[in-house]
Design brief:
The relative contact order is 0.15. The radius of gyration is 22 Å and the shape is elongated. Helices cover 65% and strands 0% of the residues. It has a domain of 84 residues. The two termini are 37 Å apart. It contains four helices and no strands.
Amino acid sequence: MADTTNTSKGSDAPNSPFSDAELEHFKSLVINKRDKATEDVDRMRAQLADAREQAENDTAYSFHMADAGTDAMEREKLYLMIAREQKYIGYLDRALERIENKTYGICKVTGNPISKERLEAVPHTEISIEAKLAQKK
């Protein structure tokens, strides 16, 4: 007989193994990490803007090919770091959705609960350590 106590929007998705209080704890953890990542993206964008402004102010006498190469490499590194942080923010946003849907803490591979310790370390994870280890084989 099917379990009819599932309260998640009519889906067959399993409910989170965590209490509402624990979900609130994880929510605040994820929000704090998201805020920090957003601040990092803003800071790196400001660095890019400064670098562009500096490049526009260079005159022919202060321009050297090695300096231009270094500047270009630094800008490219900033673009990559911004892209990486934005991807991380996306993972955190999906974790917040799972918390709201009460499916947070369920491994998407095995369907088993993810350990609280793993979620404390990597709050945006969608898979258990067992599933992660199996992926590496």
